[in-house]
Amino acid sequence: MQNVSPFTQHTALQQRPVWINEHFQRMDQMDTKLNKLEHIDSFVSSLNAKVVRLEQGVKSLDDRLDQVEMSTQLMSNAHDTQNQNFSDLKTELDKISKQLKSNKSNAPKVDQNIISSINGMKKDNDRLQNEFIEVQLKSMCTNLIFYNILETTDEDCPKTINAFCHEKLKIKNSVRLHIIDAYCMGKKGERIRPILVKFASFDSRDLVKKMLKI
User: Fold this and answer.
1) I want to staple 74 with a disulfide (CB 3.0 to 4.6 A). Which of 59, 195, 198, 199 is the partner?
2) Is residue 206 situated within a structural domain?
3) Among 159, 205, 212, 204, residue whose Cα is nearest residue 182
4) Contact 181/192 with Cβ under 8 angstroms?
5) Closest of 149, 158, 153 to residue 198, by C-alpha
6) 85 and 128 housed in the same domain
């Protein structure tokens, strides 16, 4: 075996082909790009999770709005303004939902402007939710829902509730409870439907609630 002098080894290292150096450089560049892609993928996944949570919140609000719209059918012409408010709120919520879905489909292209837009929509969503709760409380403050009361053939719900208050709750002069309207909720079937009752005053509603707790 021949001994290779240090000078010969140094010369061999200096004479490494250029294409090998270029190959190493390309590998370094690929590593850098892969690291960036991993960072973007993590960021997009986090953003997708936030968008999904916002969509779920909007869907929950839509469901609750549908229930409130059904109850507002009991109100007189004086409540038409509230009904319009519900419609405007739902339209704005639908618009936010569509924007969220659009942002989700374009998540790989997201940039700082879209993030700011989503944060702005989240603030609007929180504001609408607070307004919705306030309107809901005002519209439902004189309502009561009665459960497990057998339906009559004539389906005269106000009459049925008056009879229940007189016979079961022992409220004298139950006709003076001032029931504006009452109706069975949901479609008629095998189960007993709950009855939604709209009282004319807080006093009537509170009297019935008090007797129900006794």
Assistant:
1) 198
2) yes
3) 159
4) no
5) 158
6) yes
